[in-house]
Write a structure and sequence with these properties.
The protein has 24 helices and five strands. With about 500 residues, the chain is mostly helical. The strands form two sheets. It has a three-stranded mixed sheet, with helices on both faces. A two-stranded antiparallel ribbon has the order 1-2. It has a domain of about 180 residues: Neurolysin, domain 3, CATH 1.10.1370. The relative contact order is 0.11. About 60% of the residues lie in helices and about 5% in strands.
């Protein structure tokens, strides 16, 4: 059967991707590159192979059932970009080279305050607990120190290469290309700005009231956000013993009938020199090897990243390893939605009971409500990412102007004198047109909770965690590769994707 030949191709592709992922893990955890570029070249060469592409084209012509049609759709979409033109392949290679060069900068760069090296974790701790507002501001803007090294290293060149690629591909712009690769409707973001503006006044009013209450000021700035959160919920900054993190995480997931002891999940969670300061999951090999990179010290709120990334790891082990093709069709929104879902339990008794009594219930409830509303500002990152590819970019000043314009249009923010920190977010460099996965993942998360609670007649998934685990596995994870994201959303909820689910 021709489909078997295609599945064999994807098994070979997976072997090459596993090799690249292992090398990526080494680079992100140590700063050393033992041949990532060569590994990705192997993948590219494999995807460019004409005989393999012919097998896929021939298989598409067969009379297939719905499942195999979906498999062939995934296979075709994976190989097609590498068989349009030699020009595209050359640009793609340049993009990969430049991305790898900039990744090295991102992984090894360290920020500096008053001549002292400081980690991202330490910056976060200053932003969340430092009483001195000027010091918080200094810590916040320390993050803009990486902007120029990235620009000098070729970030603007990378943006323009991606634009060139999208044009050669035949897309309107790189945003449209990225959405097409994610199998999303080109107009999926239409009217988001209007939907958000409806809540922007509510958000700004709440931020102003919190600024008055905790700062004796009329306005809250980026460098105040973490501090004010710590005032709303002091328990977030509570010192905890992170040495027992695995047992805590394991016990939490057992509530859902998920035993992570059965899974080969590797954790590397404490900071060190030349290690990436980001939180990341490396799904090295489906149901065989998943690795989690984080940087935590001793604060309760740092468990959020461990819950999120473990959610990714669990998702990897709950997939069917025999369905290599379908697994390639799982939307990033689904994976981030499931990860965000587990991360949100930071404020739920199911998790916080490991550290606190029920005296924290009210502050966590208030914190969860405010954080959900304030997370609307993350849409600024999504739109800014898009604008980088819809405007002429020739300098850092161009980028800064776009940044201020984006946040000004969405939330009424006024520009400030300092250069805005943006480059420290790796997504702009390594995973462009990706950040929508996080916010849309949160919308999906809200939909899943509401749909489950309605079916079960409960007001919280915590009332029936085991049943919720079964719901996730059977109705979300198992079929997630079989459907495009918007189709899966409608299948589960009975309605089209809409921001209304978030609110």
């Amino acid at each position: 059967m021709p489909i078997n030949k295609v599945e064999k191709l994807f098994e070979e592709l997976e072997e090459k991707q596993v090799k690249a992922s292992r090398l990526g893990w080494v680079q992100y955890t140590t700063g050393y590159d033992f041949g990532i570029e060569e590994a990705y070249k192997e993948i590219t060469d494999f995807l460019e192979d004409e005989k393999s592409y012919e097998i896929i084209l021939k298989s598409r012509e067969e009379d297939l059932d719905l499942v195999n049609k979906r498999k062939m759709e995934i296979a075709y979409n994976t190989f097609k970009p590498f068989h349009l033109s030699k020009e595209l392949n050359e640009i793609s290679l340049e993009i990969r080279k430049k991305t790898n060069e900039l990744s090295k900068i991102l992984n090894t760069f360290r920020f500096n305050i008053d001549g002292k090296e400081i980690s991202s974790v330490e910056i976060d701790q200053i932003l969340s607990s430092e009483e001195d507002r000027d010091l918080r501001k200094k810590a916040y803007f320390a993050r803009n120190q990486i902007n120029k090294p990235l620009a000098d290293g070729g970030f603007i060149e990378l943006i323009n290469l991606r634009k060139e690629f999208a044009k050669a591909y035949g897309s309107k712009d790189f945003v449209e290309y990225g959405l097409k690769q994610d199998e999303l409707s080109p107009g999926i973001f239409n009217n988001w700005d209007k939907g958000i503006k409806e809540y922007a006044d509510i958000l700004n009013d709440k931020r102003s009231r919190y600024a008055n209450k905790f700062l004796n000021e009329d306005e809250m700035f980026f460098w105040d956000e973490g501090y004010i959160k710590s005032k709303i919920s002091p328990s977030l900054n509570a010192t905890v013993d992170m040495s027992n993190y695995y047992n805590v995480i394991r016990g939490f997931f057992m509530n859902f009938g998920i035993d992570i002891d059965k899974y080969n999940i590797t954790y590397d969670i404490f900071p060190r020199k030349n290690k990436s300061e980001w939180g990341y999951n490396f799904p090295i090999e489906t149901r065989k090897d998943s690795r989690i990179l984080a940087n935590v010290k001793n604060r309760y709120n740092e468990y959020r990243v461990l819950l999120h990334e473990t959610g990714h790891g669990v998702h990897s082990f709950l997939q069917d390893p025999k369905e290599v093709l379908l697994n390639n069709g799982i939307s990033g929104i689904v994976t981030e939605g499931i990860a965000n879902l587990f991360g949100s339990f930071l404020y739920d008794e199911l998790f916080y009971k490991n550290f606190f009594d029920n005296g924290v219930e009210e502050e966590f409830k208030e914190m969860a409500g405010y954080e959900k509303l304030n997370y609307l500002r993350f849409v600024g990152n999504i739109f800014f990412d898009h604008e980088l590819y819809r405007n002429n970019i020739s300098s850092l000043d161009n980028i800064y102007e776009l940044y201020f314009k984006t946040y000004g249009d969405l939330f009424g923010d006024k520009p400030y004198k300092e250069a805005p920190p943006f480059g420290y977010r790796i997504h702009y460099t390594t995973h462009p047109i990706y950040m929508h996965n996080y916010f849309m993942g949160d919308v999906t998360c809200e939909m899943l909770k509401k749909t489950f609670c309605k079916k079960q007649g409960v007001n919280s998934v915590s009332k029936k965690p085991k049943e919720f685990g079964e719901f996730l596995i059977n109705e979300v994870i198992s079929p997630s590769g079989l459907y495009k994201y918007e189709e899966l959303f409608k299948k589960i909820s009975g309605e089209e994707f809409s921001l209304k689910w978030y609110f």
